[in-house]
Amino acid sequence: MAELNGLADDRALLGRTSTAERVSDILRSRIADGYFPPGKRLSEDSIGGALGVSRNTLREAFRLLTHERLLVHQLNRGVFVRVLTVEDVEDIYRTRSLVECAVLRGLGRPPYAVDGLAGSVADGRRSAHEGDWKGVGTANIHFHQELVALAASARTDELMRSVFAELRLAFHLVDDPKRLHEPYLARNGQILQALQDGDRAAAESLLAVYLDDSRRRVTEVYGNRVAEEA
């Protein structure tokens, strides 16, 4: 199973204090990075074997991710990666706008710790140069995770980890990822430059327009794809 490639490598992250929470962290990250697509059935045997965890631990991790709306349990069929509705996508963007813009608005005096943002911008440009548009999408999500991290709030990071993982589920159903992600390479760079210049107001303004444009584009494309599959 291609989506299990490398999952066994994450086994080392569990360490000696393996917990359902840590397993859920790993699986959430895998969903956010696009390894498990919407509608995919998650095999207890395969995933448990790759991570070296008990069935009970894995089931508890599944329960946690179901609570986060990333997985769904279907009676007598198993656990599946959730397929979002258009309304879900709209709500994800409302949450993003509320949180991400507030993070920039609440920044103190410059300079800002933007090395993580700069690394994500560089990763996105490199992936685009290689024609890896799934990689561009991953770099874009990492950019926004790094932006949220500027708040230095563990609670905000935790909230948005699930939101970004849900967002990746929407990206999976887009037929033309280049058209979806390419415009935001330059816009991420503009936000980064504004923060490097110490202009948080300009960065917030750029981000607000960016998120609104992205919301309209993603919901349009996603809605058309859902309608085609209905």
Can I get a quick summary?
With 230 residues, this protein is mainly alpha-helical.
Explain what the structure shows:
Strands 1-3-2 form a three-stranded antiparallel beta sheet. It is mainly alpha-helical. Strand 2 (71-74) and strand 3 (78-81) form a beta hairpin. The two termini are 27 Å apart. It contains ten helices and three strands.
Protein topology:
Layout: H1 11-14, H2 20-32, E1 41-42, H3 44-51, H4 55-67, E2 71-74, E3 78-81, H5 86-105, H6 115-129, H7 133-149, H8 154-171, H9 177-196, H10 200-229
Antiparallel strand pairs: 1-3, 2-3
Helix pairs in contact: 2-4, 2-8, 5-8, 5-10, 6-7, 6-9, 7-8, 7-9, 9-10
Distance between the termini: 27 Å
Tell me about the largest β-sheet: 3 strands, antiparallel
Mean pLDDT: 89
Main-sheet strand order equals: 1-3-2
Which radius of gyration do the C-alpha atoms yield?
18 Å
Determine the number of helices (DSSP H or I, runs of at least 4 residues).
10
What is the N-to-C order of secondary-structure elements (H for helix, E for strand)?
HHEHHEEHHHHHH
Classify the beta-strand content into a percent band.
under 5%
Contiguous low-pLDDT stretches (5 residues minimum) are: none
Helix content, binned percent? 55-70%
Question: Could you say which overall geometry the principal axes of the C-alpha atoms support?
Answer: globular
Classify the secondary structure makeup into a structural class.
mainly alpha
Q: Please report the total strand number as a whole number.
A: 3
